[in-house]
Amino acid sequence: MINSLQIINLSKAYDAKEAVKNISFKLSQNEIVGILGPNGCGKTTTIGMILGLLKPTSGKILIHGIEIESHRVDLLNKLNFISPYIELPKKLTVKQNLEVYGRLYDVNKLKIKIDYLCEKLRLYEFINKITGELSSGQKNRVSLAKSIINDPEVLLLDEPTASLDPETGDFVRSFLEKYQKEKKTSILLASHNMSEVERLCSSVLMMNKGAIIDQGTPGELINKHGRKNMEEVFLKLTRETI
Amino acid sequence: MNLNKMYGLFLRHFYLIKSSLPRILDLIYWPTIQIILWGFISKFFSIYSNYYSNTLGVILTCAILYDILFRSSISFNMLFLEEIWSRNFTNLFIAPLNLKEIITSLIFTALVRTLIGLVPAIILTSPLFGVSILKLGFPLLILFLSLYIFGITLGLFVSSGLIRFGPSFENIAWSSLFLLAPLGCIYYPIEILPNFFQIIAKGLPLVYIFDETRNILLNGSVNYENIKQAYLLNLIYLFGGIGLFYLSFLRARVKGTLINMGE
After folding, report:
1. Which of the residues B10, B81, B86, B103 would you substitute to probe the A interface, choosing the one with the greatest number of A C-beta atoms within 10 Å?
2. What is the ipTM, given to two decimal places?
3. Could you tell me the pTM of the whole model?
4. What is the pLDDT of residues A84-104, one digit of tens each?
């Protein structure tokens, strides 16, 4: 079976500094893989390379068996991304933003799609509001809507619940669980929220200093390292490799 | 090229303009002020100078034409700066748009922005100063297109810098046109410049465009040699600008500028 995403011996260096060192992993269809590690460990660089924003120094990224370097624009139709560090145009209304991004992703039956997203993500109450005037939780739901507007086959989530209150965070996690089951989307989730990772991910990659230092299911990693939860595993692994 | 995607990118900026009266006023304000200011200066010279009687029409027409260049270039740069300021740059570059589609869409959007700013100023000159740029006739269209192409080309050069070097290149975006203005011989013939600057100025399409504007207004005839020279230089710079844009994108992917944009 062809993997949704396959990373083969991927490295990225900026001059003399190696940000990502020879990492390899796979993401199967209908699977959520967590990517964990301290700040600066190479998670964002890895995601940047998958999205085609960064050119790898060496190695390959395959989406459904096709290399992104040679088919960047075609494959970007199958991907999407959400991060609290990037935003949608603040001065546009929610509806205008969804229309713009729907067109950029050449979505068919866009109006029906926007209605679907509004209903599933409870956007109707502020659909005509200016995006910049929304609360963090509302903005997050709009960004989430943008990230699935093209029904991506591979969805990249960079700290999707950062800075959200517990209720909104739980809403987002529940939505992602349901959406992923319904659409069989493959998800790569970078997060610092360990309970979120335990809840959502079928397997986890632990990164530090640009390399994958361990991987397995959350249960396997907890047992292997003799810890009570993923937070303790995270602390043990990152401190060991300092 | 996908029309729906390019229209989407146009809409992103059109909605921004449409929903904000201050933005529309800002687009109109500067060209109008510029035209009024030059109108009064020219009127003064035409009353108190007998060097040539057509001063008002010449200076005002050149001021409007220079604004076509200025607005089209700034509009193109603004489209990129808006994405950086709103932290939307990454979203744009992970959307499945190729560079051809981005450039084409931005060129068209810059035209709309330019026209929104200039049309009111052009309309104002007739009742205020009795000058109409439309007196240039059909050559106006040729001169407009030539200036618009050069404005877009300058926009491409500056946007290439923004992609490659990030927001730190912003100041260059604002100052690039002021650097070219003295060499462009907008309000005076090239002979006014010192010899060394004349050599540089001859490499700019602006010199031929404004020389021809003065020629049409003062002599009532069209020298197509000037227009041909302007278009030839325009094409060279335009292809250079597009090439640089592609190159900057490739370098930005190596250096990581695209991923850190706006931070």
Report:
1. B86
2. 0.88
3. 0.85
4. 888 899 889 999 999 999 999
